[in-house]
Write a structure and sequence with these properties.
heterotrimer, A alpha/beta (about 425), B alpha/beta (about 400), C alpha/beta (about 260), B: about 400 residues, Peroxisomal Thiolase, Chain A, domain 1, nine-stranded mixed beta sheet, two-stranded antiparallel sheet, C: about 260 residues, alpha/beta, Glucose Oxidase, domain 1, 15 strands, globular
Chain lengths: ~425, ~400, ~260
């Protein structure tokens, strides 16, 4: 039985903050096939195309038939925990301060034996289900969970080390004016966040949903304008050291392409709100988050980017918008590298057209703000890194994997 | 039709060399290997020019391998081998060297092994030990071999009912043997209480189940009997050897080593039965592997290891003299030299020149090697039967 | 007899001529005009540090700023509005510089505005003012004192579901200012020169339409109008010389005689 987390006490201001450490994150290039699966919450192993042998650890040659055709495929995740041990001393500084740490040998139904981290509710000799998780280093590790969910299982210390669960954490929603921002505030409040800071720019300017937003439990409205460096800096100075998760909901959606859009004013706004806004947030909040990556139950955990799936492939109808989103995606990749030393994850949530006013003329299927918010919370709870929300997002992702050129042509309509 | 293996006609081992171990060393592996080579020439009364064959085993000599060392040491061998098989390196080096000498490719082969131990080299070795270790072991608690062998030990205990006390008995006997070795890492007698109450490392492995990493070097010469005679060197004869890698890959967790595949051949080639052997030098990185070797080398049946241990005594004056110089568990694990520790002492015992306590009337010995836990199990197993000349 | 400008300077230094700053500080959070979001927007004031005695510039501190022509206390040129688009010298770089210094009358409707944010200035109201202070002389700025600059930003913008509710002139009075009083321009404390709900007037935004249509100027986001006399102040309002600029943020100063 997992001991449920208790709400963390106020931090003793005289106590030294524990510095973040990461487990060894170096992997062979092939092993990053597991990282790719873990980033999306899939359980994939190499499966030999020729003899169907399921392979682990990752190899460049099939140990059964010597084939080199070893793609990663989703495989059943069930297995048996054959033997376990509790590591009580480690040469690695990260584990050294986290021992005792349980690991075990899991015989997968699919074939291979995987040495895995063990959830506290797993039992030697009993069945388990395996997941690949991204550990603090950003590399994939196998984690064995009990076959059936157990009470408070998300609070398990091994598991929580690999997730960004909002429970008891303090969240900043950067823009509460939008429907997405408001849905996000509600979702994080429901997920047990300790404080949900919600940024509002130009507080003199009223907006729909303001009263409802204020009524959400544990929501605290703060002045924040991602287009204003000083505003972002001031907010970071005030609350940066107690913000564990940032969800950047600042959006700027306008139809229009590159050639046919009249002038640069709107494009500048797009870049200012989205790309530069992201950079302002990253510069103001990033360093302290990276520093606080191991700061107890409510350590800094994640920076969430909401990205149009058209960051991955331009949609000419919203061409300039797509380009700005692509800039954010590139910045997010850089942020991942920069925040990784602190064990802070960058979650990219790719969404299809939203059920909001700026996509009014776009036919369904569309993603409701509530569905997007739910996906963000679930992604953080699972500790994944890339989430695709909605049918359009899934569709683009699948087509991109098959033939990017075809997708490019087809997006032109 | 199976081709019969050629016997090791007139191949002998001589000039066992041990460079006294130290817990930590600021020297490089090259220094330790150089000391062993130097000591080998002195012990044999030869010059470096006389060495026309060389094998090298070391974890910490990187980025060099055997070839780089020829220039480093000023050797010009006509036969050269790098043997990076960890705990199996000793027996494997013997096999390679013996065949080279037998075929006339070399006359005098120096088999050297050694490693340094800087304050941080153990951790570095662990994290980069192998690709599978890097990808699939080290990130899991970074307990190194301790956690991997903990799983093997736990599984063996589950399967065959071994108890910690059984492992303790082996460790205590080896400690007794080590008390007469001046450079042993562990110099104090070990009691069962101390063994049982030692701090846990990775359950069920506790402190005294683990070797102490240290710096050191071991070496021997392999040559023809007439060469050894002309040099006036005491010698032992090689009767039989086996070697096997990555056996029983389908076992969920390792409960046997590759010896089991080849054991019939070992005893047949030696023309002996297990009960004929005077002393046994197993590879003792963890006591569970010792117990496995008792089974797999034919001293008892699979699963009877615990009972075998309960029925014997393992000191040099016991019913089953074992790891006569204290083994790695008490004398220390000098990296790849750990695969030579039993070899050098077996040669000394069979030539009446042991460093520590002598085994009475030692006529023959089995030395066994086990090495390279690449992912979840040790891949290499090897064994040799040696006899007094 | 030519004016002695040095004597004028001496009077300023001695306080015989008072200089009153009618300008709001340019800051990021000061409200700006809000249009429907699908239209082009006036850029808010933004400031980015270039260096501050640091690795980006070891001995100096400076900033880059960005803003719209109509951000903060600013000047409207005739070219700003479609009605003035074809006038000669209608942009900030071509306006005769003499026009940047002109006298002003100040019409105080602060009490009325305090009672009603939708207070609209009418001809009768101005006639009542003239009855007290005399006819507005030609070539004068008309500055509307509403005390709106003293409000919180929220009340200052006063945006509701149907748009802004802030005081301003009716169409008739603007036309009358231009045609009957030959005013130099019209200045307000609010975000624009027009009434908050001025888009419902005919013509919409009459202060812009009539003033600029006749080559007159606008000043908005003024402050400290309560420190000015009803008559007798001289306004110095020189916009930046922006090529074909429609307006410009600027420092607006009032010169007032006498020690007070």
């Amino acid at each position: 039985m997992t001991t449920p987390l208790t709400r963390p006490k106020r931090k003793n201001p005289l106590k030294r903050t524990r510095l973040p450490l990461n487990p060894q994150g170096v992997r062979s290039r092939t092993a990053h096939g597991l990282t790719a699966a873990a980033a999306e919450g899939r359980f994939a192993l190499q499966v030999c195309e020729d003899c169907k042998t399921v392979i682990y650890p990752p190899r460049d040659c099939c140990p059964n038939c010597l084939s080199a055709r070893l793609p990663f495929r989703d495989v059943p995740r069930g297995g048996m925990l054959v033997a376990e041990t509790t590591v009580r001393t480690s040469t690695d500084p990260y584990f050294r301060e986290r021992t005792p740490w349980r690991v075990g040998s899991v015989k997968l139904d699919a074939g291979p034996v995987i040495v895995a981290h063990l959830h506290g509710d797993t039992v030697e000799g009993a069945r388990v289900r395996l997941e690949f998780k991204l550990d603090k280093s950003g590399a994939a590790v196998a984690l064995a969970l009990p076959e059936q969910d157990t009470p408070h299982m998300a609070d398990d210390p091994h598991l929580r080390e690999m997730t960004c669960d909002p429970k008891f954490r303090r969240v900043l929603i950067t823009d509460g004016r939008t429907e997405v921002g408001q849905a996000m505030a509600k979702a994080f409040s429901d997920a047990g966040a300790n404080i949900v800071f919600v940024g509002i720019a130009d507080q003199w300017k009223p907006f729909p949903g303001m009263d409802k937003l204020r009524q959400i439990e544990r929501v605290e409205i703060v002045p924040l304008d991602v287009t204003d460096t000083e505003s972002v800096t001031e907010q970071a100075e005030q609350n940066g050291s107690r913000i564990d998760i940032i969800v950047n909901t600042a959006e700027h959606v306008r139809a229009g392409g590159i050639v046919d859009r009249h002038g640069l004013t709107v494009a500048r706004e797009e870049i200012d709100v989205r790309y530069l806004g992201l950079m302002r947030l990253a510069q103001a909040f990033g360093p302290v988050m990276r520093f606080r990556g191991a700061d107890g139950v409510n350590s800094a955990a994640a920076f969430v980017n909401l990205l149009s799936v058209h960051a991955l492939m331009n949609w000419p109808t919203y061409g300039a918008y797509s380009a700005a989103e692509a800039a954010c995606l590139s910045a997010a990749q850089c942020m991942r590298a920069e925040l990784r030393p602190g064990g802070v994850k960058v979650l990219n949530v790719f969404f299809g057209p939203l059920e909001t006013e700026w996509f009014q003329t776009v036919p369904p299927p569309k993603v409701t703000p509530a569905a997007l918010a739910k996906a963000v919370v679930r992604g953080l709870q699972q500790g994944i890194e890339d989430v695709f929300v909605g049918d359009i997002a899934e569709d683009i992702r699948a087509r991109l994997a098959v033939n990017p050129k075809a997708l490019e042509r087809e997006m032109a309509g | 039709m199976t081709h019969r293996r050629a016997a090791y006609d007139n191949i002998v081992i001589c000039a066992p060399v041990t460079i006294p171990y130290r817990r930590y060393s600021t020297h490089s592996a090259h220094w330790w290997l150089g000391r062993s080579l130097h000591e080998l020439t002195r012990a044999a009364g030869i010059t470096p020019k006389d060495i026309d064959g060389l094998t090298v085993s070391s974890f910490t000599v990187g980025p060099d391998t055997a070839i780089g060392l020829t220039q480093h040491f000023g050797l010009s061998p006509r036969w050269l081998d790098h043997i990076p098989f960890g705990g199996a390196s000793g027996v494997v080096a013997l096999r390679r060297a013996a065949r080279a000498v037998q075929a006339g490719d070399a006359d005098i082969v120096a088999c050297i092994s050694g490693d340094t131990n800087h304050v941080d080299s153990f951790r570095k070795t662990l994290s980069t030990f192998s690709r599978f270790a890097q990808d699939a072991v080290y990130p899991y608690g970074s307990g190194g071999a301790n956690s991997s062998f903990a799983l093997i030990t736990k599984h063996y205990m589950n399967l065959y009912g071994a108890k910690r006390e059984d492992f303790g008995k082996l460790c205590i006997a080896q400690r007794d043997n080590a008390l007469s070795i001046p450079f042993a890492m562990m110099k104090k007698k070990l009691t069962l209480d101390e063994y049982m109450s030692a701090r846990p490392i990775a359950d069920p492995v506790h402190l005294f189940d683990c070797v102490m990493p240290c710096a050191g070097a071991e070496a021997v010469l392999v040559c023809r009997e007439d060469t050894a005679k002309s040099l006036g060197l005491p010698m032992v004869r090689m009767l039989a050897t086996i070697e096997r890698h990555n056996a029983f890959g389908g076992d969920v967790i390792q409960h046997r080593g590759g010896w089991e595949v080849d054991i019939g051949e070992l005893w047949a080639m030696a023309g002996m039965r297990p009960s004929d052997v005077s002393l046994v030098e197993t590879y003792d990185d963890y006591p569970v592997i010792v117990m496995m070797q008792f089974e797999d080398l034919g001293f008892c049946k699979k699963g009877e290891g615990p009972d075998f241990v309960r029925g014997h005594t393992f000191t040099n004056d016991g019913t089953f003299p074992h790891n006569t110089s204290g083994g790695q568990l008490s004398t220390g694990q000098a990296g790849a030299a750990g695969g030579f520790l039993g070899l050098t002492d077996a040669v000394r015992q069979l030539t009446d020149r042991p460093i520590g306590t002598a085994v009475a009337d030692a006529q023959s010995a089995v030395i066994s090697g086990f090495g390279m836990i690449n992912y979840d199990r040790g891949l290499s197993s090897a064994a040799a039967v040696l006899a007094r000349v | 007899m030519p004016t002695d400008v040095l004597a004028f300077a001496r009077d300023i230094a001695a306080g015989a001529v008072r200089v009153i700053d009618l300008t709001q500080t340019l800051s990021q959070d000061f409200p700006i005009i809000t249009l429907p979001p699908e239209l082009g927007q006036c850029a808010p004031f933004r400031i980015e540090e270039v260096s501050r005695y640091d690795e980006r510039g070891p001995a100096w501190y400076w900033n880059n700023i960005s803003l719209g022509e109509h951000t903060g206390t600013h000047f409207d040129a005739p070219i700003h509005w479609i009605s003035g688009k074809d006038l000669p010298n209608n942009a900030v770089d071509t306006i005769d510089v003499r026009k940047f210094i002109a006298p002003a009358v100040v019409i105080d409707c602060s009490k009325e505005c305090a009672a009603d944010p939708d207070f609209a200035l009418t001809i009768p109201f101005v006639e009542a003012w003239e009855a007290k202070h005399g006819k507005i002389p030609p070539g004068h700025w008309v500055l509307l004192r509403t005390d709106w600059s003293k409000q919180s930003f929220t009340d200052y913008a006063n945006l509701r579901d149907d748009g802004a509710h802030t005081p301003g002139p009716e169409p008739k009075v603007v036309k009358w200012f231009v045609e009957e009083r030959d005013v130099h321009g019209f200045g307000t404390e609010t975000i624009g020169t027009d009434f908050g709900q001025g888009h419902h007037f005919n013509p919409p935004f009459p202060a812009h339409f009539y003033m600029h249509g006749k080559g007159r100027f606008g000043l908005q986001c003024l402050t400290n109008l309560d420190l000015l006399p009803p008559k007798g102040a001289v306004i110095v309002a020189a916009p930046l010389k922006i090529k074909q600029g429609s307006g410009s943020p600027l420092r607006v100063l009032a010169l007032v005689s006498g020690e007070k």
